[in-house]
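Board notes, transcribed. Complex of a protein with 5-O-phosphono-beta-D-ribofuranosylamine.
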Amino acid sequence: MAQVLIGGRIASSAEPLRCAVFISGSGSGLEALLRFQQHDCHHTTCVVVSNKENAGGLDHAKAYGIPTIVIPHIDVDGKRISREDHEQLIIDELRPYDVELVVLSGYMLLLSPTFIQQYSPNIVNIHPSLLPKFPGAHAHRDVLQSNETLTGCTVHLVDEGMDSGQILGQCRVPIFPEDSEVTLSQRVKVEEHRLYPAIITKIANGEILGEDD
Ligand code: GRF
């Protein structure tokens, strides 16, 4: 199995890895990443992409002076734009930013094989469970319906499956008997906000490689 440099090069604080962060919601993970990148850092967010005009994370981007691209996946008539057309609009808008790493941070749309092939292996995601356990959009609910006493979060490369790409890093979080989805997600997010910037740093330094099969 060959190993590949995620992002394509070893970055430095003088020439940080150029990230596009994709969001759909509150963007607490984006905010944590932007805060981390304020200090001597080997990666930078050059643009934030949202499929939701009212995503709270857009305010974080603006507060840090980061350009935003907002492309709703629903058109003015309420119809879903085809995934390929929607992604092509994003790809066109991203072109001037010379993006080296796509960072999915609460982006709620599945990417098409075409998009993934274009950027692979330079797309990462954070998922709120200890993958391969509990993939999918309802990880906390599914965890709470199980008998698990431990959950966590996972940063992984994005492939064409659902939360199935190579695992790059994980962090464990205890589950308490009185937990609700809200309390569990809050506790997991504390760790997500540490894990994601740390793993992106390792990627930028060439300390974590992708496995190309
Ligand atoms: C996080 O729990 C992340 O793991 C999942 O979506 C959530 C995004 O939260 N993929 P936020 O928008 O960053 O607050």
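The chain has two domains: 15-119, 125-205. The two ends are 5 Å apart (CA to CA).
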